[in-house]
Specification:
Strand order of the largest sheet: 1-2
Helix content: 25-40%
Oligomer: single chain
Radius of gyration: 23 Å
Mean pLDDT: 74
Number of helices: 3
Number of strands: 4
Length: 119
């Protein structure tokens, strides 16, 4: 293969990659970047299996945010993380307490419930 053909193939391969990479950058970053933590807790209605995932720019959130117990459920304790909430909420869920009531109990007992929200 001639050098011109090799260059043409490489150019054709590189062009879509370059345009996709540029498309990932927001049109306007603004003065400062804002970062957030996102968590999702899900239940498969057919199997009752649960799972939780978290993503953030802060290191080691995997040690504090996601909590899962087989046969019980999953909890995400983000936003002013109280790591105590994870095991406490799973213990309450294991006793048959509803998710809403399970969340209410430790929050009411917490003198400073930072960032607690549920859906």
């Amino acid at each position: 293969m001639t050098m011109l053909r090799i260059f043409s193939v490489l150019l054709c391969l590189a062009t879509p990659l370059a345009s996709r990479a540029a498309a990932q950058e927001p049109a306007k970053w603004g003065l400062t970047l804002e970062f957030h933590t996102f968590s999702i807790v899900a239940v498969d209605p057919a199997t009752q299996e649960t799972g939780v995932a978290v993503t953030t720019r802060n290191p080691c959130v995997g040690n504090a945010v996601p909590w899962v117990r087989a046969g019980v459920g999953a909890v995400a304790t983000q936003g002013g993380t109280r790591v105590e909430y994870g095991p406490d909420l799973l213990d309450l869920l294991a006793k048959g307490v509803t998710a809403r009531n399970a969340l209410d109990q430790p929050v009411k007992a917490d003198p400073d419930p930072i960032g607690v929200r549920s859906v």
